[in-house]
Specification:
Blueprint: H1 4-14, H2 17-35, H3 41-48, H4 57-82, H5 91-102, H6 106-140, H7 144-176, H8 192-200, H9 203-233, H10 238-266, H11 268-289, H12 294-330, H13 335-364, H14 374-401, H15 407-422
Helix pairs in contact: 2-4, 3-4, 4-5, 4-6, 5-6, 9-12, 9-13, 9-14, 10-11, 10-12, 11-12, 11-14, 12-13, 12-15
């Protein structure tokens, strides 16, 4: 049978009322998500993937494809209207689309973006339709050596392309970024020993680094152990996707609008300490309660996730406070040093979490043969609760005893810097 022999039956499966409804619903949701900066199409697919679990295969695929394809256009909406691309690939649309919008031709710009996305999607689908079978025939004739060379060639090309893209992005970032605080260029050489001394004598930086590492350890450990709690302890792997969906949505609804207001009223350190204590208490209640239903565990997971969300929302603002504090003490603005040290510490936290989960499972005695033993499942549940409790307690201790920048201190630093700059 040829390629065209499959087009007729496939069209019959596609153009049914049920499939058309799901495609249009997916397109609408994908456009809305992609039009909001910070919410990607991939995140949208992850969040709505549980919806397809109870659907038939073809309507479910049409729904997800509608979301994915609509993201190509949805990201252009915010790029045109507010000069902020909703998705990374809509950044080019921003260059011409927003100027058209400011000229009063918003409708024309949106139409052009829609036509371009539609044409590009149809053209790429046709290319895949006709060239895909030919590529498949060639790949079927490849052996082990050819696969190795193709993989090596692909990785080399990817590395080269992204290296060039990284350089271009750095250049664009350098040209288009305006410093919040103008720092005069200095020809003074700074030794490595001076840099390390400034890092290890900066209590605020050490405190926020320790807290950030434990936040990552708690967050990633819980997420990894949840992959064992739901199927092994509760026998409900599908609940994990629902918990992730609800946890993300509820965290965004609660934390996004209220984090900045609460931080402004009570202080960023105070909010981080309070939210960490609440998350630790939630996991302690879960450990003592030991909910028989999976939804009880999901409720605890969501509540603890909201507490962690407050800290994650304000932590980069706390880094700015650390930079200001360092400038007040030393008279030198060290944005690059502090940001790079903090980012490196976060990478260490991510690396430690991977090894930590494996070590915890080894302590429990988890193997493929013992995965569903009562003692092992009980140990998995206990570790899923105890690990974040220890992590959040360490966060509180780091913020209370190491991190000195409470609300009063931050306000004093802001006033001191303002006075110093006004006097120049």
């Amino acid at each position: 049978m040829g390629l065209f022999d499959f087009i007729g039956p496939a069209s019959g499966l596609l153009f049914t009322l049920e499939n058309i409804i799901w495609i249009n619903l997916g397109v609408f949701i994908g456009c809305v998500f992609a039009a909001i900066p910070g919410l990607s199409v991939i995140l949208c697919i992850i969040l709505f993937l549980p919806v397809t679990y109870t659907m038939k295969a073809i309507p479910g695929m049409m729904f997800l494809l509608g979301i994915y394809c609509a993201g190509g256009y949805g990201g252009s909406v915010s790029a045109i209207l507010i000069n902020t691309p909703g998705t990374p690939h809509a950044a080019a649309t921003m260059l011409d689309g927003h100027p058209l919008s400011k000229m009063g031709r918003t409708k024309a710009a949106l139409k052009i973006a829609l036509y371009a996305s539609t044409f590009g999607g149809i053209f790429s689908a046709l290319v895949l339709l006709f060239l895909g079978p030919q590529v498949a025939k060639i790949s079927a004739q490849l052996g082990t050596a050819e696969y190795f060379m193709v993989c090596l060639f692909g990785m080399t090309i990817i590395a080269g392309v992204f290296s060039i893209c990284a350089i271009l992005c750095y250049i664009v970032c350098f040209k288009l970024t305006r410093e919040r605080v103008e720092v005069p260029a200095s020809s003074q050489k700074v030794s490595a020993s001076a840099i390390f001394k400034s890092i290890f004598t900066n209590r605020a930086l050490l405190g926020i680094i320790v807290a950030a590492i434990f936040v990552l350890l708690s967050q990633l450990t819980v997420m990894s152990l949840a992959g064992y709690v739901y199927p092994n302890v509760y026998g409900s792997a599908a609940a994990q996707s629902t918990a992730s969906l609800l946890g993300t949505v509820i965290m965004l609804i609660v934390c996004a609008p209220f984090a900045s207001k609460l931080a402004a009223k009570f202080g960023k350190k105070e909010l981080a300490v309070a939210s960490s204590i609440c998350s630790a208490l939630v996991w302690l209640v879960c450990l003592i309660w030991r909910p028989a239903s999976v939804w009880g565990f999901v409720a605890c997971y969501i509540l603890a996730n909201v507490g962690m969300g407050f800290f994650n929302t304000i932590i980069w603002a706390m880094i700015t406070d650390v930079i200001d504090d360092a400038e007040v003490r030393s008279g030198i603005r060290e944005d690059g040093t502090i940001y790079s040290v903090y980012s490196f510490a976060r990478k260490l936290g991510q690396a430690f979490s991977s090894g930590l989960v494996g070590a915890l499972l080894g302590i429990i005695g988890y193997t493929e043969a013992t995965a569903f033993d009562p003692a092992v499942t009980r140990g998995i549940f206990n570790m899923a609760c105890i690990a974040p409790i220890i992590g959040f307690v360490c966060i509180v201790l780091a913020l209370v005893f190491l991190y000195p920048l409470n609300k009063k201190k931050v306000e004093e630093n802001v006033a001191a810097l303002a006075a110093r700059r006004n006097s120049k």
